[in-house]
Design brief:
2 domains; Phosphorylase Kinase, domain 1; 416 residues; cyclin-dependent protein serine/threonine kinase activity; 3-stranded antiparallel β-sheet; ATP-binding; alpha+beta; cyclin-dependent kinase; disordered C terminus; 12% strand; globular; 10 strands; EC 2.7.11.22; Transferase(Phosphotransferase), domain 1
């Protein structure tokens, strides 16, 4: 048997290597956000004074080890390399075994905050600015789809903006690889306002086109200055979709009659008109823009536009052309040590952007085209999406006891 011997130099090298993996080489500045899968800090690398975002991974159950969602996020982000996707620098640890941090490039704002806090004089993004943001989003998403990755949670608050106007797709806690042909996956993904109808009706063999519906919602929100489909519960979300796009049927959506929720709903409200153009009547958009928006909202996902076709669309060839990234509007970075507290901004709009979701509906057959029949809840719990496989048409989820709201900001003096 051969015994390995270690010299003092080997020990010193090991100690130096471990030092490079500790969070102590970063100086905590403040906490900038908190969500289902972790707390995000703004921190400075002591050796270079460069600013990074540190995401502390949340452990729902200490006995189960690192959550699969975090493992997947780390794995995917280390694999990806694109200017419009947030980059991971490294993974570091704290004093405790469950203190694990993802070190990512830092971005000054997210689009949700930027849109919520625009002044009355600049409430909306200008057409050239919308084109610039949308093109960056589509380029980043096209890179994901080309690498067989579905994001599954695209929304305004997951789109970050740097000081030079570069958009970054972030938060890959729900992202996963897909195969062709597609395999069953849980349909309980994507924040409600941005969720595609096939997910709402229970489809588990969905494709990357669910991301394109989300892009359509984001695109519309950039134009309108407010969410297009702000439902509070799943049935209300279906209500809003039917009101705006009409009632789906087997002719325009093959396979619709066989979807799980469609079988449960005895009487889906009938609404035969597409009211999208009416919804945009006060936004002064061109007919070519409206035609482009409609391509993201096709019920039949096979006919829904993809990233490649969207980037080639005539919408980007119409004047005004996209502006330079450096000309995009920004706010002074509100999350810095000496800057204003979030409460000094538009709290009412921030409250409106809370994530609502409630799936324990007693009677799914009382869907009405008018007022939602489900009691509205100010705060609800979000499912734990860590278990991602679906077998025998069943998916297993655990409800966390008390998860924080999706966007929460605070200043603290220590790592927690």
């Amino acid at each position: 048997m051969i015994l390995e011997t270690f010299t003092s130099s080997d020990v010193k090298i090991s100690e130096k290597y471990l030092e490079n993996l500790t969070v102590e080489k970063y100086e905590k500045l403040n906490r900038v956000g908190e969500g289902t899968y972790g707390i995000v800090y703004r921190a400075k690398l002591k050796s270079t004074n460069k600013i990074y975002a540190l995401k502390k991974i949340r452990f729902n159950n200490e006995n189960e080890g690192l959550p699969i969602s975090s493992l997947r996020e780390i794995s995917l982000l280390r694999e990806l390399d694109h200017i419009n996707i947030v980059r991971v620098k490294e993974v570091v640890t704290g004093v405790k075994l469950d203190d694990i941090f993802m070190v990512m490039e830092y971005c000054d704002q997210d689009l949700a905050f930027l849109l919520d806090n625009m002044t009355n004089n600049s409430k909306y993004f200008r057409p050239a600015e919308v084109k610039c943001l949308l093109k960056q989003l589509l380029k980043g998403l096209d890179h994901l789809h080309e690498n067989f990755i579905i994001h599954r949670d695209l929304k305004m608050s997951n789109l970050l903006l740097t000081a030079n106007g570069t958009l970054k797709i972030a938060d890959f806690g729900l992202a996963r690889k897909f195969t062709m042909p597609v395999k069953p996956m849980t349909q309980k993904v994507v924040t409600l306002w941005y969720r595609a109808p096939e997910l709402l009706f229970g489809e588990i063999n969905y494709t990357k086109k669910i991301d394109m519906w989300s892009v359509g919602c984001i695109f519309s929100e950039l134009i309108l200055g407010e969410p297009l489909l702000p439902g509070k519960v799943e049935l209300e979300q279906i209500n809003l979709i039917i009101k705006l796009f009409g009632t789906p049927n087997e002719k325009i959506w093959p396979g619709f009659k066989d979807l799980p929720l469609n079988k449960l709903l005895k009487n889906i409200p009938f609404q035969e008109y597409n009211n999208l153009r009416q919804r945009f009547k006060n936004s002064n958009v061109t007919s070519l823009t409206l035609k482009f928006v409609e391509k993201f909202f096709i019920f039949n996902s096979e006919k829904r536009i993809n990233c490649y076709a969207a980037l080639k669309d005539d919408y980007f060839k119409e004047k005004p052309f996209e502006c330079a990234k450096s000309n995009l509007p920004t706010f002074p970075e509100f999350r810095g040590e000496n800057n204003l507290n979030k409460n000094d901004f538009n709290n009412e709009n921030n409250k409106k952007r809370r994530r609502f979701d409630f799936r324990n509906v007693e009677d799914v057959n009382q869907l009405d085209i008018g007022e939602p029949i489900i009691k509205r809840y100010d705060e609800v719990k979000r499912e734990d999406f860590d278990e991602d496989s679906v077998s025998d048409d069943e998916s297993k989820f655990n409800d966390p006891d008390d998860l924080p709201p999706p966007r929460k900001y605070a200043n603290i003096d220590h790592w927690v």
